[in-house]
Amino acid sequence: MWNYTEKVMDHFLHPRNVGDIKDADAVGEVGNITCGDALKLFLKLDAGRTHIEDVKFQTFGCASAIASASALTELIRGQPLSVAENITNDDIAAYLGSLPEEKMHCSVMGMEALQAALANLRGEGNGTATSGHGQDGEAYDPSGLDRVVCYCFSVTERHIREVVEANGLRSVEQVTNYCKAGGGCGGCRKEIQAILDSYAPKPSPETGPEVENKTPTAMTNLQKMMKVQALIEGELRPGLQADGGDLELVDIDGDTVLVRLKGACAGCPGAHTTLKRWVEARLREEVLPTLTVAEA
Description:
It is a single chain. This protein has helices at residues 6-13, 63-76, 81-84, 89-95, 104-121, 157-167, 172-179, 189-197, 221-241, 271-286, and strands at 26-31, 38-45, 52-60, 148-150, 155-156, 245-253, 256-263, 292-295. It is an alpha+beta fold. It folds into three domains: 6-121, Sufe protein. Chain: A (Alpha-Beta Complex); 132-209, BFD-like [2Fe-2S]-binding domain (Arc Repressor Mutant, subunit A); 221-295, Fe-S cluster assembly (FSCA) (GMP Synthetase, Chain A, domain 3, 2-Layer Sandwich), CATH 3.30.300. The strands form three sheets. The protein has a three-stranded antiparallel β-sheet with strand order 1-2-3. The chain has a three-stranded mixed β-sheet with strand order 6-7-8, covered by helices on one side. The longest helix has 21 residues, at 221-241. 39% of the residues lie in helices and 17% in strands. 38% of the residues are buried.
């Protein structure tokens, strides 16, 4: 049982400003009910368009998600836009007295929905806070900040870096608490740690460890198949099965890995992205950088 403050329980049991605004001046939406919490925020401005005259929300989530959304609406209702623009997730948590660290992602979600609504008000985007899937089209982008790191919750490297920098996070567990990345199958925890390590002080050339120059050695077809199969069975399939999906290795033709998606993955609109930016990316990292993945 989470140790909630009285104010959290009050806003959970008696949430303020629930509903929608049909003629809203701006809408901000974040999250996905298939991945857990989701929040939609509606803003109505005054006649001078300088203050938030009315605000409503709709949410799908836990007690902390409901309480955070309710608290956010109370924080910004009647306030000038200049005040709303500076609201942070810490402000939401402080208004509630505190939140368990494991539930801080709920306050972050509230802040993101507000930011999306304000961006929508400025004519920047449609009010949906995306996870950055389409910044580089369908191209494989292993180094871009908008690549998806956590596929269980669709969290990008950019978003992870934002919460790390804004909240001074130092561990994978803290990252999970603030944005859910790493809280599903766990397959992305190494990547999250690598992102955290990039903020650590770099050793000087005089004292730093020597880096060994390694040239990839040739791999036989049998070795390639065994490594691909091991990665699929040990990491990729369990990760997909955690969300109701599955993956079957059909064949390996040269550097092309042919797979068949099953379960929830078979009809998922984001299946191609999953194949390219997780399955293919992991195979390139762990097996051979020239591998490509295609559906059989």
